[in-house]
Specification:
Three copies of one chain form a homotrimer. Chain A is α/β, with parallel strands linked by helices. Chain A folds into three domains: 87 residues, 3-Layer(aba) Sandwich (Udp-n-acetylmuramoylalanyl-d-glutamate--2,6- Diaminopimelate Ligase, Chain: A, domain 1), CATH 3.40.1390.10; 203 residues, 3 Solenoid (UDP N-Acetylglucosamine Acyltransferase, domain 1); 32 residues. The first copy, chain A, is built from five helices and 40 strands. An eleven-stranded parallel sheet of chain A has the order 8-11-14-17-20-25-28-31-34-37-39, with no helix packed on it. A ten-stranded parallel sheet of chain A has the order 9-12-15-18-21-26-29-32-35-38, with no helix packed on it. The termini of chain A are far apart. Chains A and B meet through strand 22, strand 23, strand 38, strand 39 and helix 4 of A and helix 3, strand 40, helix 4 and helix 5 of B. Strand 40 of chain A pairs antiparallel with strand 39 of chain C, so a sheet runs across the interface.
Chain lengths: 354, 354, 354
Amino acid sequence: MADSFQPSIKATTYSVAQIAEHLKARVIGDESQMISAVNSLPEAQTGELSFLSDKRLLPQLKATQAGAVLVTEKMAEHCPVTAIVVDNPYAAYARAAGLLYPQRFHIPGIHPSAIVDDKASIDITAWIGPGAVVEADAVIEADAQIGPNCVIGKNVRIGKRTTLVASVTINYDCELGERNLVHPGTVIGSDGFGQANDNGKWVKIPQLGRVIIGDDVEIGANTAIDRGAIKDTIIEDGVRLDNLIQIAHNVRIGAHSVIAGQTGISGSTHIGKQCMLGGTVALAGHLTIADNVMIAGRSEVRQSIEKPGAYGSGTPLEPMKKWLKSSARFKQLDEMSKRISELEKKLAQLDSPS
Amino acid sequence: MADSFQPSIKATTYSVAQIAEHLKARVIGDESQMISAVNSLPEAQTGELSFLSDKRLLPQLKATQAGAVLVTEKMAEHCPVTAIVVDNPYAAYARAAGLLYPQRFHIPGIHPSAIVDDKASIDITAWIGPGAVVEADAVIEADAQIGPNCVIGKNVRIGKRTTLVASVTINYDCELGERNLVHPGTVIGSDGFGQANDNGKWVKIPQLGRVIIGDDVEIGANTAIDRGAIKDTIIEDGVRLDNLIQIAHNVRIGAHSVIAGQTGISGSTHIGKQCMLGGTVALAGHLTIADNVMIAGRSEVRQSIEKPGAYGSGTPLEPMKKWLKSSARFKQLDEMSKRISELEKKLAQLDSPS
Amino acid sequence: MADSFQPSIKATTYSVAQIAEHLKARVIGDESQMISAVNSLPEAQTGELSFLSDKRLLPQLKATQAGAVLVTEKMAEHCPVTAIVVDNPYAAYARAAGLLYPQRFHIPGIHPSAIVDDKASIDITAWIGPGAVVEADAVIEADAQIGPNCVIGKNVRIGKRTTLVASVTINYDCELGERNLVHPGTVIGSDGFGQANDNGKWVKIPQLGRVIIGDDVEIGANTAIDRGAIKDTIIEDGVRLDNLIQIAHNVRIGAHSVIAGQTGISGSTHIGKQCMLGGTVALAGHLTIADNVMIAGRSEVRQSIEKPGAYGSGTPLEPMKKWLKSSARFKQLDEMSKRISELEKKLAQLDSPS
C-alpha cells in the first residue's frame, strides 16, 4: 500500500559535522557527508542516520549501510561507516531527529472559521486553527498552536510554543505551561469524580480546583485529566503521559515522570519525580509514591511506596486449561498454607515423639 | 505558578443561617457570619466553610480557623468555630458547595457558529454553543446546555437542564433525561461491538438499539457508551460514571450506582441499583450483578454476583524480584496443591501404620 | 421512557424469498411473507426476522411468534414458523440485518460549514459533514462519509465508502482503506510514545511513521492508534477494534483479528491473523503473537505466543475478606513451595530411615 507514499514531512538536510556539533559529539569518518533522513540500522542507506543503543544489535551495526551511526565510544570500533560518538546514542538520536525533523509551526494568525471570544487574548505569533473555539479571558501566548476543532475554555492559559494538535478540550481556568505538546482527543480540566452519598443517592461535589501543567510536558491522545476538588491537580515539568490515561482530581505527578498508556491514577495520589509507570497500571487514591519508582505494566498499587526501586504485581499468562486450574487454586491459598503448617506440626511430632 | 490566579468561578455569598436553612441544620455559634468560599480544614479562613467527615481528622478540626464547619452532633463539641450540625457532613458539604457555587447557565440562544438543522427543535431557553452541530429531528429541551463543538445526532433528545460540557458526541436516536451532566470527549450511542464470524472473516451486525439515559446522571470525560444491538443500552436515574469507562451494548446500570474510571462492562451485563464499582474493574458479558454490590478497583468479574456485599480480586504489589518469584509459583499452584495432598496421605499412613 | 420512540432508522422491507436468495439459503414455509424488522426470538412478531445461534435457546425457538427464523438444518424441525435454513445462523443474521438496515449514505457534497483546504481532493460522491475540517493534500475518495466535526489532517487518504461517524481525528499522512467504519472520538496517527532518557529528563523522539489501515476495518469509539516511530503502524484488512483501545507505535494487527474494548497493545508488538483478544487485555511491547490465538479478557501478556490456542491469566473474584487472605498468601507462594519441598524431603527420610 505504501509504494507511492510521499510523506508530507521531509527532513531538513544537515552535514554529519553539523549534527555532531549539535550533539557536541566526536566524528570518526566523513564529516562532510549530508544527512537527510533517519532510519533503522538494517534499512538505513547512504545519506541516512541511524543509531545503536542496544548491544544485542551489534550484528546490525556491523552490516549497516547507513550514512552515519550514533554509537558509544566502546562500539565505535565496530562501526563500518561514519561514526558519531556519544554517551547515550538513544538520547542523541532523539536530539538529532529533532534537528532533522523540527516541529512545524503554522503561519501565525486566526483561521477565519475559528471562533474566538472578543475577551480572549491571542498573541500575534500564535496560530488558532480551523473550527477551534477560544472562550472569554483565555490567554494564548506566543507561538502557541491551537489545532483544528480544539476548545479552549474561559480563563485558560496556554503557554508559549505549546501545541494542541487537534480536537483537544481544555476546560475553564486551567493552565498549561510552555512547550507542551497535547495530542488529539485529550480532555484537561473535566470535573473530578466527587460524589457524596446521601441515603443511597449521590450528591455532586462541585469541583473548584484547576489543572496546572508545567513546562515541557507531553500528553497523549484521549487522555483525561480532572480538575481538583478544592485545590489543583498538578502535572510538573517534563512529565510524559501516553494515551488513554486517567488522572483523577488532586493527583500530583512529579517532574520528569513518565507514564505509559491506559494507566489510571485515583484521586489525591502523588507520584514522585522521575518515576516510570508502565501501561495499564492502576493506583488507588490517597497514596504517595516516592521518587524514582518503577512500576511494571498492568500492576495494581493499593499502598504507598516509600522506597525507590522496581515493583510489580499480577499473574502470568498460561494456556487456558492450565490457567483455569491455577486460578481455581488461588482461592484455596489460605487453606493450602494452613495445611502446610499442619503437616509441619505433625511431622515435627513424628520426628521427636516424646 | 498559581500566585496571580483569578478563578473565573466565584462563590455566591450566603450567611451561615442561610446555609443552615438550606441544609435544614442547626447552628452552634455565629449565624450571621457571611460565607463566600469553601476550603479544607487546615486551610480555611474566616468567611470560608469547611467540613469534618472523617474522625481521624479531628486534630484538624480542633486547629481550624474556618468561618464555619459542617460536623456531626458528636463532633460539635470539638469545633472551635461556628458549627453547622448535620447527620452527614460530606453530603452536607456537597449541598452547601452546590449552593455557593451553582452551575452557571449560559444566556439562552444559538451561537451564530453553531450548525443547527432546520428540522431540529431547540427550546428557547436552551443554549447551543459555538461550533456545535445539531442534526435533524433532534429535540433540545428547556435550559439544556450544548457546549462548544458537541455533535447531537439525528432524532436525539436532550432533556431539561442537561449539560454537555464540550466536544461530546451523541449519536442518532439516543435519549438523555433531565439534569444530566456529560463531560468532554464522551461518546454516547456508538455502535455496539457485534461481529459474526463467517469462515474466518467478520460480518458486522447492524446495531439497531439506542442508549437511553435517565435523569440526574453524570458521565465523565472520554467515556464510551454503545447503543444496543436490538434493544437499548440503559443507564438508570442517578447513575454516576467516571472517565474513560466502556459500556458495551445492551448493558443496564441500575439507579444510583457509581462506577469509577476506566472500568469496562461487557455486552448485556446488568448492574444492580446502588452498586459501587472501583476503577479499572473488568466485567465479562451476560452477567447479572445484584443490588448493593461493592467491587474493589481493578477486580475482574467473570461470573454473576447474586448477593449484596463487597468483592475483589487481584494480587498485591511486591518488589520486582519477589513478584517474579510469586508469579512463577502461581503456575505451580495446582501441582503444589497435589503435593500437599500427597504429603497428607503419606503422613496419615505413617501415623497409623496398619 | 421509550413508549413514544420513533426510531429514525427503519428497515427496508423484503420478502422471505428475497432474504433467502441474498443468503443463498433454503426456505421451509411461507416464502412470500414480508419482513420489515429484526427481533429476538421471544419478542419477534409477524413480519419480523429472528435467529437461533445457540442450542440452549431451543425453548425460545419452539415458542417464537417471529415471521421467520434463521436456523441450521438440524434445528429446522423445531421451528414453529417459517425457517430459513443456513449453515451459520448468526452470520446469516448479520447479513440479513445488513440487507434490511443498510448503512445510510448522505447526499454527496460538502456542508457549507465544513472547512476544506483548497489543496484537498474531495471526490464528487463523497460527503463532508458540518464542522468537519479537511487539510491540504488530503484525498477523500468516492462515497466516503466524513461526519460532523471530524478533522482530516494533511496528506491523509480516506478510501472509498469509508465512514468516519463524527468527531474522529486523523493526523497527517495516515491512510485508511476502503469500506472502513470509524466511530466517534477515535484518534488515528497521534505520535507514538517515544521518549529517550537523558540524565533524568526525557527527550522526545520524533514519530516519523504513519498509520496504515487496510480495507473493511471497523474501529470503535475513543480508541487511539499511534503513528510509527520510523516505519508505520499497520492494521490489516478486516480487523475489528472495539472502544477505548490503545494501539502503540509500530504495532501490526493481522487480518481479520478482533480486539475487544480497553485492550492495550504496546509498541512494536505484532498480532497474527484471525486472533481474538478479549477486553482489557494488556500486551507488552516487542512481542509476536501467532495466528489464531485467543486471549481471555483482562489477561496480561508479557511474552510472545508461538502456538495457536486459548490463553488466559488473572485471579478469580472472591468475597472481600476471603480475597484479602488469598491475596496476602500470594506473597508467600515461594516460601510455601519451599516448605512443601522441605516436608517431602523429611518425609522421604522418615519413610526410608537408613
